[in-house]
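# nightly structure sweep
# worker-07 picked up a monomer target from the shared queue
# config: single-sequence mode, recycle default, output format = structure tokens
# input follows
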Amino acid sequence: MTELSPQRRSLVLAICCASMIVVVMDISIVNVALPNIRDDLDASVSSLQWAVDAYTLVLASFLLLAGSTADRIGRKRLFLIGLAAFGIGSLLCGLAPGIGWLIGARAVQAIGGTMLNPVAMAIIATTFPDPKERAKAIGVFGSMSGLSLALGPILGGALVDAFDWRSIFWINVPIVAIAFVMTAVYVPESRAPRARRPDPVGQLLVIVMLGSLVYAVIESHKLGWGSTTIIALLGVTVLAALATVAYELRRSDPLLELRLFRSVPFSSAILMAFGALCAFGAFLFVTTLYLQEVRGMSALKAGLCLLPVGLLIVLLSPRTGKYVGAHGPRLPLVVSGAALAVGGAVSLLIRPSTSLPAVLAMYLLIGVFQGTINPPITNTAVSGMPRSMAGVATSLASAGRQTGTTLGVAIAGTIVGSSQAHGGTSYTHAEHGVWWLMIGLGAGIVALALISTGSWAKETSKRAAALFEEVDRGAVPEPAGRR
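# output follows
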């Protein structure tokens, strides 16, 4: 790709950030509208979870396909297709006459979304070849992820109170239209030097694995973990996971590029992305319901209560990206994991009568967690990897995030679902399961941060990158049995 001017690179980054904002915001913007959607469409708790999870589940399932396809047919081309599909899905959501239609339209939205975020990260990785500049750009882009999740409830609350829940989908249309035109004019085309072949069998196995797992978690509170249906779904999940690994190891161009996981920093980044967004997805789900159902707030007021989280993400994420470019990811990751664990611990103290300033102070810790987690994770996922693997590597990182968000919402809904009818103390007591989950995930992030930033871990990253560079040049034959 031709070297771009600094102004052109900044414009490309802004376009990519716009796509991140609409796609990620639609994960959380729905949360504050859930009570209104429930009343208007007569939806159950389980169907409300699916209104959130249909979106994130499709994102997680097809992100890998989008990344490898973009590397093959062109990142700009797929990005434009994704914008169009996302806009159409948003229109369909706004027209939904029932909860089934809404869930289906959310899936259409997500199909477009799968072609945006991982492709945008790959575009950024190739647009900013200098490692330090790339780290800063990824810091800005990464900050949009957490910021969009945090600001989604605020914007959603304002729109729901001023208009109705359908407006949270209509607002996407003009943003997507502008981004489409800007992309067509200013974003250069790029693709991987060596095209990767399609892998439909691998894609089907990934869909079966994630779909079975999320469906089991969502329906477990209604059917019970010991029910035949849930046990069968979990069995399908395990079998699909084993089949995916066995099949992908035999392919020369697998959808799930397992050789990337020879890099300890990359593997840790995927696990941390999964854990971080699982925690944040669960936090947003239970918090918006707590503020509206337990404390009786309007959608807008509930959204504004999350403003401290959004402000800290805005303040910390760009600075974190700059710090990562100069000093590495260890300190931000440790700070982020510690803030998550402590935030979960102090949230155990929340009661229906807890003063609002005290509740908001607890939310500050979640802002620190989100403000310092995305830039180091995203940068770690792509740094050191050859450009030919940019789409695949960023897709895996995005898949980790979206899978984490999906399961976070599903698990949180399972934990607090039955307590919603009782409200008050019953709900805040049920929330403890979510807070303990956050404590455990925070501790895990700290441990992975320390493991993945040592000299041994860095050597594994160099060896993994060298392997792909040699394979791309044809200097190393594919392992026996691959096809």
